[in-house]
Automatic annotation (TrEMBL):
Name used for this protein in its record: Xylulose kinase
Chain sites annotated for binding substrate: M81, H82
Active site: D241 (proton acceptor)
Reaction catalyzed: D-xylulose + ATP = D-xylulose 5-phosphate + ADP + H(+)
Lineage: Bacteria, Pseudomonadati, Planctomycetota, Planctomycetia, Pirellulales
Keywords annotated in UniProt: ATP-binding, Carbohydrate metabolism, Kinase, Nucleotide-binding, Transferase, Xylose metabolism
Function of the molecule: Catalyzes the phosphorylation of D-xylulose to D-xylulose 5-phosphate.
UniProt similarity note: Belongs to the FGGY kinase family.
EC number(s) recorded for this UniProt protein: 2.7.1.17
MF terms in GO: ATP binding; D-xylulokinase activity; kinase activity
Gene: xylB
Site residues by UniProt (Important for activity): D8
Domain Carbohydrate kinase FGGY C-terminal per the UniProt entry, residue ranges: 258-449
Domain spans labelled Carbohydrate kinase FGGY N-terminal: 4-248
Length: 509
């Protein structure tokens, strides 16, 4: 039987899985790697770690599965979006890749906005404003700050597309991930020569752009040997991890929205047209569904805030094994009351993207009193993360985008208590899938479509994805959250100037 491989180059690690043509997951493997933070707000990674993790996980997974290598017909690639791998003429990586949550490019975002003429004109060209995590300001940062490296620059690739280069020898990206560079004319699904011209950058720096299910090449002899696969194995475009995760959740038609609590938080809604948020709070990107788009809100430190809280602060859980620490901390939080006794947490630990595009936003607990204990503080962290997602949901609804079903996903949504909290904070029913495998599953389905096992991705999702459970909002908790949410919303405006002063102090420490 034909089999399809999905590889997701995440921030904390790479996840690889193999499905058969019915969508059944046959085997999977994970490998972790570190993220460097040389200064507050700077994040980078060595692309060699991604390649080592790809080789390790594919080999381990093939061994576990016992599947004949000739039956692996195609590979789909997914990965953390927006990152920049800088290559010289001989394909050497020039410096560590800058990541999606790197905040060093505020000046370059201003440069791009003025080169475009105004924020509105920029949104008119590429459907999005300049945000610090995106790829275009990273290229300008290299030009402004590392001139010798910029002079060597021959190509800039997104993380998963650097893996494609090592697999097939081709420089190719696809529309969903390309949307997050800021170089793409999202409506036309091709590079914006207009913006590139205004930035004095050549299109030669960028790879070719295809649709997500298109076959971009086959494995080179060397890659097939190293991975234990064949040179007939195709590689399809794949998708940025948000669109890939959405495909894995079946978000392929109007009315469907997914929430994801991973390291980042994402509210993702399918759109038949390229609807643009004129004020640029939401991203408008191409979907991995041919000829469709999506809108999304992104929180930079979503589940990452709970991770920080549990790792750095909840010392009493020190003896609990890593895999059980989230469960232990959240079980304790469940004992506190909804609304955490009037205490709020702002999850802006590394700046924020939606709705406050602000690299200098910072986290805060507000409203603490002597009755508050650790359980209430953990609960406030979870509630703050969930309020941040509600911010995106409210913008999506205010733009008139239909939302008929919300599907919860990501590490945080595996937790029953957090799923209930999402239903209560959003004031809506939440749906979960029978098996939720995330981005690697989504791109394995795209590989199946590219190989011809399904006519299109909606058919593949229909055949393989099953809704399992529904969680309804609790009326009393919903009322409590409806009272707290306006206070949560107003806190950023009240604290912004102080946050900026503190961020300035932190950068000079
Ligand atoms: N059992 C759990 N209970 C509550 N939250 C969890 C649990 N497991 C994971 N999480 C949350 O999910 C996050 C990781 O999500 P995941 O989707 O696995 O990560 P990533 O986005 O890095 O690929 C953690 O930082 C944590 O906040
Ligand atoms: O920046 C975005 C999307 O715009 C992030 O969603 C990254 O793509 C996150 O990667 P992981 O945390 O899932 O590795």
């Amino acid at each position: 039987m034909a089999h399809y491989l999905g590889i997701d180059i995440g921030t904390s690690g790479t996840k690889t899985l193999l499905i058969d043509e019915t969508g059944h997951v046959v085997a999977e493997a994970n490998a972790e790697y570190p993220m460097e933070q040389p200064k507050p707000g700077w994040t980078q990674q060595d692309p060699e770690h991604w390649w080592a993790a790809t080789k390790k996980t594919v080999k381990a997974m093939m061994k576990k599965s016992g599947v004949d290598k000739a039956d692996v017909k195609a590979i789909g690639l997914s990965g953390q979006m927006h990152g920049s791998v800088f290559l010289d003429r001989d394909d050497n990586v020039i410096r560590p890749a800058l990541l999606w949550n790197d905040q060093r490019t505020a000046d370059q975002c201003d440069q791009i906005t003025s080169a475009a003429g105004s924020r509105e004109k920029l949104i008119g060209m590429v459907a999005n404003p300049a945000l610090t995590g995106f790829q275009a300001p990273k290229v300008l940062w290299l030009r402004d700050n590392e001139k010798r490296n910029f002079d060597k620059l021959a190509k800039v690739l997104l993380p998963k597309d650097d893996i494609r280069r090592r697999l097939t020898g081709d420089y190719v990206t696809e529309v969903s991930d390309a949307s997050g560079t800021l170089f793409l004319d999202v409506k036309k699904r091709d590079w914006s020569k207009e913006l590139l011209g205004k930035l004095d950058l050549s299109t030669d720096l960028l790879p070719r752009v295809v649709e997500s299910e298109d076959v971009t090449g086959t494995l080179t002899k060397e890659a097939a040997k190293v991975l234990g696969l064949t040179t007939q194995c195709k590689v399809v475009g794949g998708a940025g991890d948000c669109a890939a995760g959405a495909i894995g959740n079946g978000i392929v038609k109007s009315g469907l929205l997914s929430t994801s609590i991973g390291t980042s938080g994402v509210m993702f809604v399918h759109s038949d047209e390229p609807n643009v948020d004129a004020s640029g709070r939401l991203h408008t990107f191409c979907h991995a569904v041919r000829g469709k788009w999506h809108m999304m809100g992104v929180n930079l430190t979503s589940g990452g805030s709970l991770q920080w809280w549990v790792d750095q602060v909840v010392q009493g859980l020190a003896g609990v094994p890593a895999a059980k620490r989230f469960e232990a901390a959240t079980a304790e939080a469940e004992k506190a009351i909804a609304g955490s006794g009037g205490m709020l947490f702002l999850p802006y630990l590394n700046g924020e993207r939606t709705p406050h595009a602000d690299p200098n936003a910072r986290g805060a607990f507000v409203g603490m009193n002597l009755t508050h204990d650790r359980a209430a503080m953990t609960r406030a962290v979870m509630e703050g993360i969930t309020f941040a997602l509600r911010d995106s949901l409210e913008i999506i609804e205010s733009l008139g985008v239909p939302v008929r079903q919300i599907r919860a996903s990501g590490g945080g949504s595996k937790n029953v208590f957090w799923r209930q909290m999402q239903a209560d904070v959003f004031g809506k029913k939440i749906t979960t899938l029978k098996v939720e495998q995330g981005p690697a599953f989504g791109v394995a389905l795209l590989a199946a479509v590219g190989d011809g096992a399904y006519k299109h991705i909606a058919q593949a999702c229909q055949a393989t994805i099953e809704v399992a459970a529904e969680t309804k909002a609790d009326r009393s908790a919903k009322l409590t959250y409806n009272k707290l949410f306006p206070v949560y919303r107003s806190l950023y405006g009240s604290l912004k100037d102080d946050m900026h002063q503190l961020a300035e102090l932190q950068s000079t420490n």
